[in-house]
Amino acid sequence: MNQELVIALGSAMLTSIIGPVAVHYARVLIDTKKKRRESPLSEAIKINNIVSEKLGEVRETYKADRVWCIQFHNGGHFYPTGKSIQKFSMTHELLKPSIVPCQTQLQSIPVSLFSRVMDTLEKGSIISVYNVKKDILGIRGITSEIQGSGVKSTYVIPIFNIRGEFVAAVGVDYVEKLMELDDDRLTELEIDVSTIGGVINNYLKS
Q: Cβ neighbours of residue 140 under 8 Å, at least 6 residues apart?
């Protein structure tokens, strides 16, 4: 048997053995990637990226210094009843480079600390404050926090699920200068926020 034939037969045998093995491992890798994409963590990352992208669009559209989103969650239990303590966290915050972030300071905050503001939003009302220094009534319950943050104008839109439950809110802040959003502009902002609400609600019910 000549050398070329031996090499050809050897190559064919290796291919017949290695080929199926390679195909098997390729399929395992593909299945692993599919499972990874379908994991809760992967889904959460995907949704968070979508929400951040939408919030970024809001910031650009309304020329805001800061745009943020808060969501509600349980945070421990009352003793001795075991009833859940309702809290909220700022899950997203998009800023101009010159603005100081506050997201890390607003994690697992009891709703009771901001009950007046939450009551206003839970009833479906928008918080619309053109001048934080003058419109104290518009920021009742968070006056010191808002004024201390340097925010000059702020607008907060509530988000509800299909059952009418208050689940989140999106805020648009102006720190470097006053900014007035008229009724038409606020209506446009509500529409833009509703798309963010749709993304959040689809994720929460999945």
A: 116, 117
Helix (H, G, I), strand (E, B) or coil at 22: helix
For the chain, the domain total comes to 1
Q: How confident is the model over 43-71, as pLDDT tens digits?
A: 888 999 999 999 999 999 999 999 999 99
pTM of the complete model = 0.76
CB 75 within 8 A of CB 112: no
Residue 118, token pair as written in the block: 């939450």
Burial state string for 50-79 with b = 16 or more CB within 10 A and e = fewer than 16: bbbebbeebbeebebbbbbbbbbeebeeee
Strand pairing partners for 84?
Answer: 77
Are 124 and 77 a contacting pair, CB within 8 Å? no
Q: Which domain holds residue 175?
A: 40-205
Residue 32 · residue 128 · CB < 8 Å: no
**Residue 166, CA atoms < 13 Å, CB-side half-sphere:** 19
In a domain, 135, yes or no: yes
* Separation CA 52–CA 55 (nearest Å): 5
Q: Does 162 reside within a domain?
A: yes
Structure tokens at 124: 């479906």
| Per-residue pLDDT reduced to its tens digit, 89-145 | 999 999 999 999 989 888 998 888 888 888 889 999 999 989 888 765 555 555 556
